[in-house]
Specification:
7-stranded mixed beta sheet, 28% helix, GNAT family N-acetyltransferase, GNAT_dom, Bact_Acetyltransf, transferase
């Protein structure tokens, strides 16, 4: 049994997971293609941060959404500890993040991931994300893949 809850990006469990993610990505990509954002520097109202915990309350995964204030957000720092993969925790985490984003007025989510992270790409595709062009603040990068998902099928409903 796992739980998914909101958490501060400065919590030691989160910083440990993000350090593991950074270490992993540094083995795959050069520094200029690793778009690492320090979530602790963002205002609280602009961030959704969630953690997955196992029965023993060990943090085994995390993910965040940076809200842009215009109805869009960017998925960041999604990571599941390798020993807990294969249990659809990624899908559950994305669904929880998306629900919270939508409750805060977010209608479109975007993300950047690396082309070598095939499991992550599959997760995002299974969760309804589709490839798109690079979006600000990114520039096209042959090692990056950009994706987006509309959380509201009819954007006219997002303003009601």
């Amino acid at each position: 049994m796992y739980s998914i809850t909101s958490e501060s990006p400065a919590h030691p469990d989160i910083t440990t997971l993000i350090a593991a993610l950074d270490q992993y990505q540094s083995t795959l990509y050069p520094a200029e293609s690793n778009h690492l954002l320090d979530l602790t520097q963002l205002p609280e109202h602009a961030l959704i941060m969630m953690v997955i915990r196992d029965r023993q309350l060990n943090a085994v995964g995390c993910g965040a959404i940076v809200l842009n204030g215009d109805g869009s957000g960017e998925m960041k720092r999604v990571y599941i500890d390798p020993t807990h993969r294969g249990q659809r925790l990624g899908e559950k985490l994305l669904a929880a993040l998306e629900d919270e984003a939508q409750s805060r007025g977010c209608h479109t989510l975007r993300l950047e991931t690396g082309i070598k992270q095939l499991s992550a790409i599959s997760l995002y595709e299974r969760s309804g994300y589709q490839q798109c062009a690079a979006f600000a603040p990114y520039q096209p990068d042959p090692l990056s893949l950009f994706m987006e998902k509309l959380l509201v099928a009819d954007l006219r409903l997002a303003v009601l």
